[in-house]
Amino acid sequence: MLEAATWLLAFQLAGEAAARLFQLPVPGPVIGMVMLAIALMAYPALADRLRGVVDGLLSNLGLLFVPAGVGVSLHLGLLEREWLPITVALLVSTVAGILVTAFLMRLLMPAEDRR
Amino acid sequence: MSEPFYKLWVYLAAGPLVWLTATLIAYQIGRYLQARTRGNPAANPVLIAVILLVLLLARTDVPYAQYFAGAQFVHFLLGTATVALGLPLWREAAMLRRHIGPLLLSIAGGSVTAAGTAVVVAWALGASRATLLSLAPKSVTTPIAMGITEKLGGIPSLTAVLVILTGVLGAIIATWVLDTAGIRDWRARGLAAGTVAHGIGTARAYQVNPTAGAYAGLAMGVNGLLTAIVLPYAARWL
């Protein structure tokens, strides 16, 4: 567990450093994610050491959004004033986004790979 | 409250322990309620935890900054979890390489649709400029979205809230929308959930099907990448 956590933090740190150093528009953790995927291509054995911690982290992903979500208490006034445009915008865009992504994928994937 | 209890509360409320514990307990209650409703997407654990904690803060008169000083340790792991998505990404690398075009186009199409319709609808209904700018990156995962909004001149903490509302909404309605539309391919379902509802959609996708989860994680990463690069240019027209 400790080894996996160390690897993940090291990649996060490397990603953060690269993002700052090269002034990339992409946040550090996303760079770290790509770096980890590339490292796994070179050393697939690393996957076995990471699996437990990664699965634990990803199956509880929702928890990690809670602290930022509680920030809603800062914006109750604005949400009350603009609740209609915000609610309708979120609903319409979420449904539209889901449908467009799923239908594009169905349309563009070659037939033999469709399931 | 009696005097010794009040003193104890004042002491504890100032440190991170209470807020860290409260965050975990609130989320556990959310998970328990979801299990009790046999995985009903409407009993979303993130939503339940946020509501419970907002009520607790209001009841105890604790400002958000004081809560966040404790809960930030959980918040920090969001970055680490984003890195961890590299593993499912690698697992799907062969499929990704073979279908890089269709996958990128699907994610980009969904991403532009979600951001575009959100801004246009909110604008048409009279939302303020700050809200519009904070709304644009809402389909991207929190740390990325907050960074983008800051660059655009929106309100980062409002974006965080809109991101999470979007994620919760997406996780709740995705199953129903995709069933109604007749999309059965787990890859397409996961890709849609991850593109629109980022990490919360991904968490939901993992819960439903591992393949959907991997594609959701992939879509979340790619969408974050694309939006971070494209949106600062697109927002010049706002």
UniProtKB/TrEMBL annotation, chain A:
Places the protein is found: Cell membrane
First-listed, main subcellular location of the protein, grouped into a coarse class: membrane
Annotated TM spans: 29-46, 58-77, 83-105
Keywords recorded for this protein, A-Z: Cell membrane, Membrane, Transmembrane, Transmembrane helix
Organism: Enhydrobacter aerosaccus
InterPro entries: LrgA/CidA
Protein name according to UniProt: Holin-like protein
Gene Ontology CC, one term: plasma membrane
Pfam families tied to this protein: LrgA
Record has Transmembrane as a keyword: yes
Topology relative to the membrane: Multi-pass membrane protein
UniProtKB/TrEMBL annotation, chain B:
Primary location class: membrane
Spans through the membrane: 6-29, 41-58, 64-90, 102-125, 155-178, 212-235
InterPro entries: CidB/LrgB (IPR007300)
Lipid bilayer topology: Multi-pass membrane protein
Signal peptide: none
Keywords of this entry: Membrane, Transmembrane, Transmembrane helix
Cellular component GO terms, alphabetical: membrane
Name recorded for this polypeptide: TIGR00659 family protein
